[in-house]
Amino acid sequence: MTSSANSISPAPTPLRRPSQALAAVAIALLMGLQALTTDLYLPALPLLTHELGATVTAAQLTMSALLLAFGLGQLVWGPLSDRYGRRPVLLAGLSAYVVASVVASTVGSIELLIALRMLQGLAVAAAVVVARAMVRDLYEPAQSAQVMARGLSGLGMIAIASPIIGGIVTASSGWRAAFLTVACGGAAALALVVWRLPETLAPERRRVAGGLRGMSSGWGEVLRHPGFRAWALLTCCSYGGLFVFLAGSSFVYIGVLGLGPLGYGAVAATCSMSYLAGTLVCRRRLVRLGVAGSVQQAAWLTALAAVAFAVPALLGIQTLAAVWLPQLIYQFAHGTHMPCSQVGAVAPFPHKAGVASALSGCASALVAFVIGLGLGHFLDNTTRALAWGVALFAALTCLCAWTLVRRHGDVVHQRVTPVDTAAQGQT
Q1: pTM score > 0.85 for this model?
Q2: What are the structural domains of the chain?
Q3: Nearest alpha carbon to residue 242 among 33, 74, 392, 93
């Protein structure tokens, strides 16, 4: 006779949940690696182009190749993290990131640097896709938006510091030191994962199908969801405008407007400050408007940025203010679009958060890759390419927020309550 004990299903394995403070720090560091990888070396881009004897188009490939690997890498890391857990993926990705960053500081050709930037992109994809999935592991959708906004506030601080540090390091020690500094950031994130960050994916939620075919079986389900498509497209459009700035701003501010590396770093830092302010406002706006309502309201500022970019470009006005001030407005609105869209894309998929995060991240990275390939051909001794590029993506962001997100974006059925906000504000 079979005992009753043998007929009872095993209880779910309890997980050691990180505190909200630790979760926010982890999200900031892991997602901040992308900003560190792109923003810190921007002041060094003209210098390394000269020292390696590269063309502007080849130098742009150090950015666009990174984004291509970053996007495609998420399609692998996301399903792997859903199957094997978040920590193993983080440990593998962060270790590879540190090694690639150190080796990049020693190269003597632009071709090898491009290859190592691809490895960096593949590695940092693990950190970003897992960070987004971790939020869904730990919190329900309504609370996720607040936690993500807090984490992205920390990312904003990293983005503020990165171009300043990059400008100082490049001016004092050259572009190779910038890559060593990036390696230190990766080592700090790796140390946090090793010693403080527990596994967040419960064993019973891990998918057991074998092979990549089994791991990717949920892609069709995610892609067919209209809410996912709306939020993922918003991510692509808003990040597309940001990437135009990232890829082209150093050549415009330094080469056209005459700023030095330190001056450019300061300007880029103020844009990141505006983004940080936007995430702080987003956390309060969520209480009143919810996730979809917040991005629809923020889109009015994005529309203002589009006009502020387009009009001076149309009139041939080439001044610091004509580029810098519209970018401040754009970044502020991006501080709402980014956390909301990233939460909205994964909210319907608690058991496939890694896949949803990967597909959304891959789409935005591929958009950035295409921008990186094409932007170098349009950059000239004017500010027009930069201004028109950001204005275009600002307009597309507004269109997406006011149509697709409004129609299909209500994937977070609960509004954030003032109690949630107050509780999280204590940390």
Answers
A1: no
A2: 18-201+224-414 (1.20.1250.20)
A3: 392
